[in-house]
Amino acid sequence: MHIPDGFLGPGASGSLIVAAAALAGVAVGKVRQGMFARQKAAALKTPEGAEFGGPTVTKLTKHGQSLVFRMAVVGAFIFAAQMMNFSISGGTSGHMLGGVLAAVLLGPWAGFLVIAVILVVQSLVFADGGLFALGANIINMGLVGAVAGYYVYRFLFKKIKKEAWAAFFAAWISVILAALACCLELAVSGTISLSVSVPAMVGWHFLIGLGEGLITALVLVGLNFKEKTNE
Amino acid sequence: MGIIALLLGGVFSFFASGHPDGLEKVAEDKGFIGNALEYPFATVMPDYAFPVENEFAAAMLAGLIGTIFVFILIYSFFRLFSIKK
What we know:
Chain A is mainly alpha-helical. Chain A contains seven helices and six strands. Chain B has three helices and no strands.
C-alpha cells in the first residue's frame, strides 16, 4: 500500500503533501483540545516539574496525560504489526495498515497522527514508501484508513453494538477505501486508468482487508476493549 | 501491548512474507512497476535490514530499533504538545 516515488505526478504528490500537512495541523489542534480542561486550582504541578498558579488554569487532564503514552504504545505496536507481511494467494502479500485500530483505541485524530508519524519514519528511515509520495500515503492510510475508517466503525457500532465485529468490518472496508484512494491518485497522475486499476486493487485488498479486520478485531478482543471507556 | 510490539518487531518480523504487497503486485501485473524511482537519498535501514552481516540479525535489529524509535518519537513529540498551553 505504500506508494513509492514515481507512481504519482508532481501535481498530485505536491498537493497531497500540502493537504497532509494541513490535516496534521488540524489533528494536533483537535488532540490538544481533548487533553486540556480549564479548572479552578491554586497550584498544579505537572510531571515535568513546571508549576501553574492562579485562579483558573488550563490543566492537562488525566485522559490527556495517558493519551500521549497510549499513542506511543499503539504507534509502536502498529509499526511492528505493519512489518509482518502475511501471504495471500497468488504470490502476493499484504500487511496491516492499523488505521482503524489506532482510531478506535485513541480517537480518529490521534489515530491519524500516529499513522502519519509511522509513515514518516517508514519513509525516512526504512525507504518504505516514497518521500514525495508521503503526502499521498498519509492521506490514504491516515485520513482514509484511520479517520474515515473510524466513522465507518462508529456507524457500524451503533448498528450492531459489538465492538469487535464493528471493528472487523470497519477495518476491512477501510483497506478497500484506502486502495480506492490510491487508484484515484494513480489515475489523476496518468499512471494507470481507473478501469484497469480498480478491479485489480480492490481484488487484492479485499483479501488483505480480511486480514486487517481479523487482526484489528483480535487485538481489541485481546485488550478487552469496551467502547464506553474511550469516551 | 508494548511487549507484544517488541516481540512482533524483533522476532516475528523475520518470518514476514517476502512476496510483493497488493499495490506492488498490481503495479507488476499492469506494467507500471518500472515507474518507481529509487529513494532520493540513502536511508539508515533500507528494506528493513540493519547494516550487519547476518540476515536474521539484520531483520531483528531493524524491527526492534524501529519499534523503539517509533515509541520514543511519538512519546516525546506529543509530550511537547501536552506541556504548555
